[in-house]
Write a structure and sequence with these properties.
The complex is a heterotetramer of chains A (246), B (418), C (179) and D (368). Chain A is an alpha/beta fold and 246 residues long. Helices cover 18% and strands 19% of the residues of chain A. Chain A has five helices and eight strands; from the N terminus they run βαββαββββαβαα. In chain A, strand 4 and strand 5 form a beta hairpin. Chain B is an all-alpha fold. Chain B has two domains: 81 residues, no CATH class; 290 residues, no CATH class. Helix content of chain B is 65%, strand content 2%. Chain B contains 17 helices and three strands. Chain C has 179 residues and is mainly alpha-helical. Chain C folds into two domains: 89 residues, NADH-ubiquinone/plastoquinone oxidoreductase chain 6, subunit NuoJ (Four Helix Bundle (Hemerythrin (Met), subunit A)), CATH 1.20.120; 39 residues. In chain C, 17% of the residues are buried. Chain D has one domain: Cytochrome-c3 Hydrogenase, chain B (Orthogonal Bundle), CATH 1.10.645.10. Chain D is built from 15 helices and nine strands. In chain D, the strands form three sheets. Chain D has a three-stranded antiparallel β-sheet with strand order 1-2-3, with no helix packed on it. In chain D, strands 7-8-9 form a three-stranded antiparallel β-sheet. A two-stranded antiparallel ribbon of chain D has the order 4-5. The chains are: A alpha/beta (246), B mainly alpha (418), C mainly alpha (179), D alpha+beta (368). Chains in contact: A-B, A-D, B-C, B-D, C-D. At the B-D interface, helix 9, helix 13, helix 15, helix 16 and strand 3 of B face helix 4, helix 5, helix 7, helix 8 and strand 6 of D.
């Protein structure tokens, strides 16, 4: 049976070597500063007592205020398992890559970059892996597709927690994503590009993707459109789409 | 017995020939014989392609514990017709970037050697369309044209998979022609003729050549699968590697022609095998009871069945393994074979021995072949049996404390994407 | 078998001659190098046909087997192995001298052909394989052996040329791949 | 002397290629037929499950796990349910645990049949071993259909148990299948293991050293083929695997052939486990009643199982609501691909296809 090393024990071991690295600890995990993660990982891997040669899982979690990168690591020889976390600010959201320590982090870091937008410094080829280059935004972020009125996007019908006086969910004529791709997202939106943290807009993010007809000459407001950050989408054709309301 | 069989033997044609010979000019007889013979071969080949589609699919189905086509017609017999109709209906696509003048040629060119091969076969004692004196050489020369057609197909498609397939097939065909020529030398030396009909006649007087030149039979069998692009040597259209190889871009009936040619070529190769090594129409006197041409066709299908069996059983060689097989295994064996047979023929002729000497020759050759094949096989496969082919079973988890592999240390930070 | 033979042979001769010379001209004029080689193959096949009309069936078979089947394939290989930019049959600056040399050679050959007193095979269509075999091993044994030695030398040279350097060795592919 | 070299060129292996087992693409740069660089291109089957799952309740997410590894839906279900149970602290009835083991092992046999059959196909066989293996896979799928009505996307496991008890006709069917299965596996082995062409194609090809395997987070048969006796069923037993007797097969050389024979032997071990589980199968309920909107306490859990492809892990974060705050899958097919590039560079196309086949990927699970 695999022994789980508690967060406190792990934190103690790390602290013995790197006194300033540990940010937080609890029963499950030890949280270290992002800039220390490679040293800590290398230490945990090569320390014979910990012997964390195997990286089981790596994923990012978006806590709205900050990102956490979770490393589930284990020692096969000792059959132990532990959870290490690295915490970083959402902006710029950079974590050093642990690929030199565990090669198995290669694809998992690329996935976290692609979907969560955490950038791993020192990764050999940090490129999009599931989504195409130029996809707007990083969809696993919690504020991706933030909808007006405090809704989380779609699909919250279960367990029927609608606001007072409302019985159905407002249907958006097109998905915000399609709007963004078609360049119509901000025709009626009050674009406040600098107001929220997120991925800075790059030229590439609205670069027309092959197969989708996007007008080349964009308006200034559109230029400022944030990748994956649709701040406001007013429902324009509410009546016309009533039939489609589920 | 004989009168009963007349109506389905080719004796009427024989009579017609003699009748014409007496009454009209010789070139008319020549022309009539050529037309009738060609028509006969075309019929056989056309029907054979249809039958082979059905036979191959049914037999592969049986080998693979399934039924094969059994819906269209009794036992699915009409399935090839349905397939053909489907292929004809399909749109024939041509890539924009293809070399359009060359692209349409190969499906036609590949048919030429496939058809021409049948011309020199001896279907019955007097039933040879073209009794060429250099018949065996003719077969080899013809088969080298197929490679060119396939190369044109792969090149003109302007597709990398097709080009890879074309390169593979060219490399393979040149390589396999060498052991093939060598293995044909042995029966030719022994029989003293290069005519296919002559070889069959020699076998009628002596015995099946397969008994005297078993090594040639083996080498030709292996080379034939390579020449045919069939498993285990189907590297030119290796489905799992290069999609469909040289005919990746061909669709509709153009693909259908390639498919048909593959089946016809299988028949041709089986026919060569049957004629050169297994007596052609001759079968220990049975040909007097059953028409000789039926015996020949049965023999063809016997070897064709072997090809189907191979296809249903074996995986595919890698290209370099296949080339290695040709140059490192088949060529030395073929050379040894030719040397042995030449020595035997020399002794036979110089010492002026009778026909009885063939019996000890057969024994010697079979024993020698078996020994050589076993030795070569051991040498070649020793590498694979270095390790057992079964796993180790472990009761509980057991991980050795291995040091982490030397990583390229900590890389200098690469610029981050914005 | 006289009438048809004479007429057919004449017809066949002219067809083959037109095919051979026509495709030979195409070899010199088409732009795509691959097309040129394919025309060259057609020319080889035409020559094989001419051999057959001369009742030299063995030579015809060998012509197809060696020239159309093997040598042209080697040419195709070498074209495929050259970079795409060099794969062009475009005009070269030496076309005039080359053409004059070719014409000169043709004139000499035609003169030689016309002025020689050819021996005709009197008895129609016979096998030539046996005669060729005897000729190669009896009166012409020495040239035959010299030719084979030359070929061996050429083969060794080719192997030395394409032999991989040491840094490229040790790849997991077998030796056959590097032929 | 300058070396004769052909210019390198790029060939796209996939996304529509017979041997990429789905819409998976390798951009291979070739020198002749030798691969000098390879780049994976994924995402053709990306369905954004991790995002979708954040908006669905824990129970509603079970069907996603079917559609990840659609050739091993049962183990996908099982891994996810174990993670939720760990997160919410739910005890599963014993009968349900045995049923889970039985179905997970049946699924492993079915998945390995598929993996080994297509592997031999990748080596160039004309479907024959695949058809033999499909014969038994078909019967296993019949057992699934009999139990839960579906063959491929079973959606059978539930949080706190399984959805249905097995019907009465299940027992004779599974017993007869298990009685036959050792002979059948021997038949597969007879078809493939002593075939010199298969040996020539798979021996010493795509060798993965054990230390590299561990460092690259390789799992499952890929890791065991490299000679590391590691199996989550033994190392971290879930359900009732600690009561079962079975062995871990490991390879000697870490090449494609070792992975192939490890899968072969694992089928046999699975038969052993199923036989024991059927003997020990107790009576009782097969699930526990749970609220429709299960709200696990805030926290996180990482649960892992040994799926046919390797270690399948689910990392769940709950914020106390009815939906998971974070739903992450550690999918073995995806992470096993880490080694692909290093494995295929230097090989010929044919060997690269064999190596890819021996990793046994499932694009549904890679792209999720």
């Amino acid at each position: 049976m695999t022994q789980t090393i508690s967060g406190h024990e792990l934190a103690a071991r790390i602290r013995a070597r790197f006194p300033d690295a540990v940010l937080e600890e609890d029963d499950v995990c030890a949280v270290v500063k992002a800039e220390n993660i490679v040293e800590v990982a290398l230490f945990l891997r090569d320390d014979p007592e910990t012997d964390a040669k195997y990286l089981n899982n790596l994923c990012g979690v978006d806590w709205l205020d900050y990102f956490e990168v979770v490393y589930n690591i284990s020692s096969m020889v000792k059959n132990t398992m532990m959870t290490l976390k690295a915490r970083t600010d959402r902006d710029p959201g950079v974590v050093p890559s642990v690929t030199p320590v565990w090669k198995g982090a290669d694809l998992q870091e690329r996935e976290a970059f692609d979907l969560m937008g955490i950038r791993f410094e020192g990764h050999p080829s940090l490129k999009r892996i599931f989504l195409w280059e130029g996809f707007p935004g990083h969809p696993l972020r919690k504020d991706y597709l933030a909808l007006p009125g405090g809704y989380k996007p779609g699909l919250q019908r279960f367990p029927y927690e609608f606001p007072e006086g409302q019985t159905s969910y407002p249907y958006l004529g097109r998905t915000p994503h399609a709007d963004l791709m078609l360049g119509t997202a901000h025709q009626s939106a009050e674009a406040e590009p600098e107001a929220e943290p997120g991925v800075p807009m790059s030229e590439r993010a609205v670069e027309p993707h092959a197969g989708l007809a996007v007008p080349r000459g964009e308006e200034p407001g559109q230029q400022a459109a944030r990748a994956g950050q649709v701040t406001d989408l007013t429902v324009k054709d509410d009546k016309a789409n009533e039939d489609d309301v589920p | 017995m004989a009168p009963l069989l007349n109506w389905y033997d080719f004796d009427p044609f024989h009579d017609l020939y003699h009748w014409l010979d007496k009454h009209v000019e010789s070139w008319v007889v020549y022309l009539v014989a050529a037309v009738i013979g060609s028509a006969g071969i075309l019929t056989f080949v056309g029907l054979g392609a249809l039958v082979n589609v059905w036979l191959e699919r049914r037999l592969i189905g049986r080998i693979q514990v399934r039924r094969g086509p059994n819906r269209v017609g009794p036992f699915g017999l009409v399935q090839p017709v349905a397939d053909a109709i489907k292929l004809i209906q399909k749109e024939v696509l041509q890539p924009d970037a293809a070399d359009s003048r060359l692209f349409n040629l190969p499906p036609i060119i590949v048919f030429i050697p496939a058809m021409l091969t049948f011309a020199v076969f001896a279907w019955a004692p007097d039933l040879v369309l073209a009794n060429l004196d250099a018949g065996v050489l003719y077969l080899l020369a013809i088969s080298s044209i197929t490679a060119l057609a396939i190369f044109i197909a792969g090149w003109s498609s302007n597709n990398k998979y097709a080009l890879l397939g074309a390169m593979r097939v060219i490399a393979m065909m040149i390589s396999y022609e060498v052991p093939m020529v060598m293995c044909f030398l042995a029966p030719v030396l022994l029989a003293g003729t290069m005519s296919v009909a002559g070889l069959v006649q020699w076998q009628q007087h002596h015995f099946l050549l397969a008994a005297f030149v078993p090594m040639s039979v083996l080498i030709y069998g292996l080379s034939a699968t390579a020449e045919l692009n069939r498993t285990p040597a189907d590297i030119a259209e290796a489905e799992s590697e290069i999609v469909a190889g040289y005919h990746t871009e061909y669709s509709g009936m153009k693909f259908g022609l390639f498919y048909a040619v593959e089946l016809i070529n299988s028949l041709a190769v089986s026919g060569i095998m049957a004629s050169l090594f297994f007596g052609g129409w001759w079968l220990f006197g049975v040909e007097k009871v059953i028409p000789a041409w039926i015996i020949f066709i049965l023999k063809i299908y016997f070897f064709y069945f072997g090809l189907i069996w191979l296809r249903g059983t074996l995986p595919r060689f890698r290209i370099d393994q296949l080339m290695g097989l040709a140059w490192k295994m088949l060529l030395p064996l073929a050379l040894i074979n030719v040397a042995v047979i030449a020595t035997e023929v020399l002794i036979w002729q110089e010492a002026d021995l009778g026909g009885w000497v063939l019996a000890p020759y057969a024994v010697v050759n079979i024993a020698l072949t078996a020994a050589l094949v076993v030795v070569f096989f051991r040498i070649v496969t020793a590498r694979f049996y270095r390790l057992p082919t079964r796993v180790i079973l472990v009761r509980d988890i057991q991980v050795p404390a291995l040091p982490a592999p030397a990583s390229s240390a900590l890389r200098p930070p690469t610029p981050l994407p914005q | 078998m006289t009438g048809i033979d004479d007429t057919a042979v004449v017809i066949a001769f002219w067809v083959m001659a037109v095919v051979t010379i026509g495709s030979a001209l195409m070899v010199a004029t088409v732009h795509d190098l691959i097309h040129a080689v394919l025309f060259l193959i057609l020319s080889f096949v035409g020559i094989a046909g001419l051999y057959i009309t001369l009742s030299a069936d063995f030579v015809a078979m060998v012509q197809i087997l060696i020239y159309a089947g093997a040598i042209s394939v080697l040419m195709l290989f070498s074209i495929l192995l050259t970079p795409r930019s060099a794969r062009d049959n475009a005009g070269v600056s030496y076309s005039a001298p080359i053409a004059s040399v070719a014409i000169l050679v043709a004139v000499v050959l035609i003169y030689a052909g016309l002025s020689t007193d050819w021996a005709y095979a009197s008895n129609g269509f016979t096998s030539t394989a046996r005669e060729i075999g005897n000729a190669l091993l009896d009166p012409y044994a020495l040239p035959f052996e010299v030719a084979s030695v030359l070929l061996v030398v050429a083969m060794v040279g080719a192997i030395v040329l394409v032999r991989p350097t040491h840094e490229a060795g040790g790849t997991p592919l077998g030796e056959g791949e590097q032929f | 002397m300058t070396e004769l070299r052909t210019p390198p060129y790029v060939v796209n292996i996939g996304p529509q290629h017979p041997s990429t087992h789905g819409v998976f693409r390798v951009k291979a740069t070739l020198d002749g037929e030798r691969i000098i660089d390879a780049e994976m291109v994924l995402g053709y089957l990306h369905r954004s499950m991790e995002k979708l799952a954040e908006e669905r309740t824990f129970t509603q997410n079970i069907p996603f796990t079917d559609r990840m590894d659609y050739l091993a839906a049962m183990t996908g279900n099982l891994g996810y349910c174990l993670a939720v149970e760990k997160l919410a602290g739910i005890e599963v009835p014993e009968r349900a645990q045995y049923l889970r083991v039985i179905f997970a092992e049946l699924q492993r046999i079915a998945s390995h049949c598929m993996a080994n059959g297509t592997f031999v196909n990748d080596c160039g066989a004309w479907q024959t071993p695949l058809m033999y293996m499909f014969r038994e896979r078909e019967r296993i799928l019949d057992l699934f259909e009999m139990t839960c009505g579906a063959r491929l996307t079973t959606n059978y496991m539930r949080i706190g148990g399984v959805s249905f008890d097995v019907p009465d006709e299940f027992y004779p069917a599974v017993n007869s299948l298990m009685a036959e299965m050792p002979d059948r596996i021997a038949e597969y082995e007879g078809l493939t293991l002593d075939n010199e062409i298969l040996l020539a194609r798979a021996r010493d090809i795509g060798v993965l050293r054990p230390d590299v395997a561990i460092n690259s987070s390789a799992t499952g048969p890929l890791l065991r083929g490299s000679g590391i006796a590691w199996d989550v069923r033994k190392a971290d037993p879930y359900c009732v695997y600690d009561r079962m007797e079975f062995d871990i097969p490991i390879g000697r050389n870490g090449d494609c052939f070792d992975r192939f024979i490890v899968r072969m032997e694992e089928m046999r071990q699975s038969v052993r486990i199923i036989k024991q589980a059927l003997e020990q199968l107790p009576a009782g309920p097969v699930n526990v009643p749970l609220p429709l909107a299960l709200k696990p306490p805030p926290g996180e859990a990482y649960a892992r199982i040994e799926s046919p492809k390797g270690e399948l892990g689910f990392y769940l974060v709950s914020d106390g609501g009815p939906t998971p705050y974070r739903w992450h899958v550690r999918s073995p097919s995806y992470i096993n691909l880490t080694v692909l590039k290093d494995m295929v560079v230097g090989l010929s196309i044919a060997d690269a296809i064999v190596s890819l086949g021996s990793i046994d990927i499932n694009v549904g699970e890679i792209d999720r």
